[in-house]
Structures are given as C-alpha cells and as structure tokens.
C-alpha cells in the first residue's frame, strides 16, 4: 500500500511532511529517533523543521501507522507498524535494534501472565546486550563490560 492510501485509510491527508517522514522510515527500515529522521530530511534537502517531525510522528503514532519504542534512557525511536507482533534485541554499545519473533517466548509470557491471574492484552519485550559486531571487535572500548541502564531490570514486558 502506498503512503497516500495508508494515510487516507487512517483519516489523514497526504501532506508533504507526512509523506517525507514515512519515506525516511520506510527507506531506512530501522528504528529512528525524531532527531535522526530530521537529520536525514535535511540531508535530502527537505525544509521540514524538527517540531514538525515530532508533530507528524505523534499523528502517525496516534492512528497506528508508526510505533514508538523507548529502549534507552528515555530516547524514543519510531518504526513503521507492520501489524505483526515482534520483540527487540538492543545493543547497549552501538544502539543497533534487531526485531525477532519467537513462539516459545510468546507462549512463556502468556503462561506467566495466566499463572498470575492476568489475561494479556498487550506486551513488549526488549532485551539488551552486545551485538556480534560490537562483541567481536578487538580493543573496542567497553567491549568487556555491559553498560546497564539506570533502574533497568534487563527486560521490558
């Protein structure tokens, strides 16, 4: 589905800022902050302000076109909402985010909730570690230790 149709289905007009923000998210196929999206737009020669990027992201999140995730120190990153549930692995060194889906983890999360009298309506899991690129780089500063986020128990659910 193209951007115009997707926006119209969700009750939004296909404005230039909305189209450009969606273009960046689709082209990069990554989890990007508003600042990163804004920088990429500037590099493309687009005259779209940072406040506009934040406003557009909020609108797109509100109607379910993009998903907002907070992985590290309160920094929000955005991704196109594909409709399928997935979890995330986040590198604490380089910030790389990898999406994955594991049926066993999903089943275990539902069982944990059920055993405690909960019926899950939504959940998010982010696991923090060191990616293969960072862990295998000889002499990389801090490659021997894991930087933990303050107050983090290591998972979100």
TrEMBL record:
The keyword RNA-binding does not apply. Zn(2+) binds at residues 91, 94, 131, 134. One of its GO terms (cellular component) is protein-DNA complex. Binds 1 Mn(2+) or Fe(2+) ion per subunit. Binds 1 zinc ion per subunit. GO terms for biological process: negative regulation of DNA-templated transcription; negative regulation of siderophore biosynthetic process. Fe cation binds at residues 85, 87, 106, 123. The keyword Iron applies. Its main location: cytoplasm. CDD domains: Fur_like. It comes from the Bacteria. It is found in: Cytoplasm. Keywords: Cytoplasm, DNA-binding, Iron, Metal-binding, Repressor, Transcription, Transcription regulation, Zinc. Coiled coil: none annotated. GO terms for molecular function: DNA-binding transcription activator activity; transcription cis-regulatory region binding; zinc ion binding. Its cofactor is Mn(2+); Fe(2+); Zn(2+). Homodimer. Belongs to the Fur family. This is Ferric uptake regulation protein.
